Amino acid sequence: MVKRPQDSIEEVLKRKQFRVSVFGSARMKPSDPEYREAYSLGKEIGKMGFDIVTGGGPGIMEAANSGHIAGRGTKETSSIGLTINLPFEVDPNKYLDVHSHFETFSRRLDSFMRLSQVLIVTPGGIGTLLEFFYSWQLTQVQHLCATPIILFGEMWGPLMKWVKAYPLKSGYIGEKDVALITTAKSRDEVMNKILEFHALYEKEGESFCFNYLKYKTN
């Protein structure tokens, strides 16, 4: 396992590296297909030389961080974990180059938003749903840049059907709000969407909209 020296979040931001956040359940086991999918996804993100950001705990987070380290080889990219005190997440996983700990969910979520250019939401519970809806809200009201939010996995289809059948149909949200969300059923679909957005990042260079500059937290 090739690890980098520990940096602070502020040092990470200075590098203007392309970063992908992966949200998902802490309860997944290595034997679960979702864990293996997250590992494979993290590995592909590492191969591309992108940073990865997770909650730094077990389950999906560990899978994505460990996959990233396995895939990146000698590329100068970081595996980042943003941890928080939880009854079932005592220690950070061991696949982190950068580890920052938070006492509140709100500060942790704000750090996710500032760090990320792409947000991937894999299967998970209440915490994952919080991360998804928080991201969606901030993108809707344009507090974030035009940040892709990709729902990865079978569990999201029924939720998006409900969104269209109730909040959208009732006029509580608009078609433009729903269009901010992308669904993907395979790792290749997710990577294609990441690479599409990375091409825009490469094209725009210094004029690219970075969330750490746009998103004001105080």
What descriptive keywords fit this protein?
single chain, 218 residues, alpha/beta, seven-stranded parallel sheet
Characterise this structure.
The chain is α/β, with parallel strands linked by helices. It has nine helices and seven strands. The protein has helices at residues 9-14, 33-47, 60-72, 105-115, 126-140, 156-168, 175-178, 187-204, 211-214, and strands spanning 19-23, 51-54, 79-84, 98-102, 118-121, 149-152, 181-184. Strands 4-3-2-1-5-6-7 form a seven-stranded parallel β-sheet, sandwiched between helices. α2 (33-47) links the parallel β1 and β2 (51-54). α2 (33-47) runs parallel beside α3 (60-72). The longest helix has 18 residues, at 187-204. The N and C termini lie far apart (38 Å).
